[in-house]
Amino acid sequence: MKRGIHTLTVFLLFAVLIQPAATAAEDAAPVRLVAEWELTGPLVVVWPEHLRRQSALVEPINNWIRSLPKDWDVAVISARPPSIRALQDLGRDVRYLPIDRPRNVFVRDWAGLPAADAEGRLHAAKFRYQPGHLSGGDVARAHDNHRVGAELGESLYGAISEIPLTMSGSAITHNGKDTAIVSQRIIGENEQRSITEIRDRLRRYAGLTQVVFVPLHPDDRHGHLTGLIRFASDDLVLVTDHPDENGEQADFARRLEEQIDRDLGQTLRVKRLPRPSISADLPFEAGSYLDFIALDDHLLVPFFDAPEDEEVLEILSEALPGRVLAPIPADVILPLAREGLAPSRISVVY
Question: Which of 148, 159, 231, 344 could link 291 by a cystine bridge, Cβ 3.0 to 4.6 Å?
Fold first, then answer.
C-alpha cells in the first residue's frame, strides 16, 4: 500500500535547475560537499547539561551518547566544560571540544558541512545561520550558534569555506557529488537574492550543479528536511511515507517522488519508508526512520517498538547491500522523540 507525507494545503510545485559545468577555472567550486557515509568521525553532539531551560534533555541525550558504538569517535561540546566525573558517567570514551556557548542542541542546523577541496583536504563549508523567523534574544542566540558552528569546523578541520547564503544545515540533503535537495525556505531566507543567484552560489561555492527545491512541510515553518527526504547513498533518495488514508499527504509523497524521478531519475533511485505507526503520538520534529545516522559504512536506524521497524530494516538492507545496519533501540529513541529530538539533528558527522 502506498503512503504519503504531510503536504501544504496548496501544493507548491518543485523547481529544479541543472546547471552547466563551469568552463573557467576561476568559476569552479572551491569545495565539494562530502557525504556522511564518506566520513569516519567524530560524531559531534551538544551536551545539554549547562544549557538554559534544557535540563530535561540531559538524560535522553546521555542515553543517546551511551548507545553509540563503542569504537566510534564521539565528541561533545557544551556551554561549560564538563567535569571528568560527568564524562566518566557516560560509560564510554568521549572527547570534549573546548568550544564555548552553544545555545541549543540542534547542532546540524548551525554546524558547517564537511567538504573537500580539489586536493582532498577537508574543510567545513558554512552557511550563515540567521533564521528569519527569530526575534529578540533568539537572534543573539542564533548568532552565538553560528559562531560556535564556525569554531567547530575550524577546530576539527582547521579551515572554513563560507557559502554566502543564509540557511539551516537541516534544510539540505546532498549525495556527496553534485546533487542536492534543498528546502524552499532558502528562498525566503535570502529574499534579497534571485533564485538564479541562489542556484549560482550553490554551484560556485558548494559544487552543486543539480539542485531540486522542495516546499515546506505544513507543520514545519523552518524548512527542515532531515525526517522527510534524505540521501542515503550517492544514487538513493529516501522519502518518508504515510498511509493512503491520509489523502493529501499520500498525494504529496506521490508527487514528490514523481518530481524527483522526472528531474533526477536518470541517476537516482527513490524509495519510500513508512512512518512508524506510533508517530502520531510524537512531535512532528521526531518520529521518522529517516533520522538515521550514516557514518562510514554504518547506518544506525531508529527503532520505535513499532510494527514497521523490521520492514524498514529489510528495505534498507536490500537498497544498501554494502552497509552495516544496526537499530537504535526504542528505549533510546522514544525519550528523545518525546522531547522533539531527532538523532539526525542533534548529531553531526565530521
Answer: 344
